[in-house]
Amino acid sequence: MSQLVTVREVDALEPEVVGELLRDHPYDDYRRHRRIAPDAALAFLRERAQESAAAERCHRLLARDRSDGRPAGVLMLQYLSHDSELLGRPMGGIPFLLVRADHPDPGDVLRALLLSLPYLVQREGYSHVSVRIDSADIAAYHELTDAGFRLMETLVSMAYDTERRGIGVIDPAEFGFDGVVRTVEPRDHDAVAEMSRKRFTLNRYHLDQSISHEAAGELMARWARSYCENDQDCQVWVAEGKGGELAGFLGHQLNRGLEKHSGILVSGRALLAVEDPRTGVGQMLSRAHTWQSPGDYKEADTQLNNYGMIKASFKLDMDMVRTKYTFHR
Description:
This is N-acetyltransferase domain-containing protein. The protein is built from twelve helices and twelve strands. It is of the alpha+beta class. It folds into two domains: 5-148, Gcn5-related N-acetyltransferase (GNAT) (Aminopeptidase); 159-321, Aminopeptidase. Helix 1 (15-22) crosses helix 2 (38-54), helix 4 crosses helix 5 and helix 7 packs antiparallel against helix 9.
């Protein structure tokens, strides 16, 4: 039992509590985007935290200092309905695992929160729990590992700054491609989903031995299809050969919430797949994203061991802006 904090499950998190826990938060996702003001990025993070805390089937563990009762940290556990339905097992996710920035012993706070987690998991009947943290949060890495979580992936995020790097229109011939790059059409949806099912094999779902490759492929297929079907907040580029076949696609999502707070639009969470990785189609689609997708910053995520994608991103004048660890238990 911690000598510094007490942990209780609470019915709600007041905005003042969320605000105190996020004051001077050191691991904001957009701290390396020079045109996004820190206060705007934190306002967006506060909004996300409050939305998560108020969501249906979200359970909140709040740690308070024994000395003065100040909020010290929080762990939220959320039911993942989409994953649970697809995989046929109750799955939970931890959207927020936070410690107050000025706390003298963040490891103790995290340890106390994670010691209380198994009771919630057992009570709710979850057979699988996942969480993602910033790789700079060494205390969280240590405590999650000690609590039995397994590292599944290290995610690297690259960003293209249009103000610094400029925009243009791609010429497929320059990439050795005999065809066109265009936005997705309804007739492409099945092909995009099937390519996602076959080509995404380095992600955390495929690397988790408790999840079948068939189910992991279906998760990726549904993710790609959701991008195709949401043309308000997403965009998908496809490379179509002269015979009408799809050689690859790149889909991304527009961060409207961050834009509301900062006035800066980031297009990210990109999914890129190609039929033949030996061709220049992947680099061509990535260039289409950096030059022609809407947004002030164009992001792309990949696993740390996807060396080809990281190398291609640097060639496209993208900067590494964040790295994150994903854990499963």
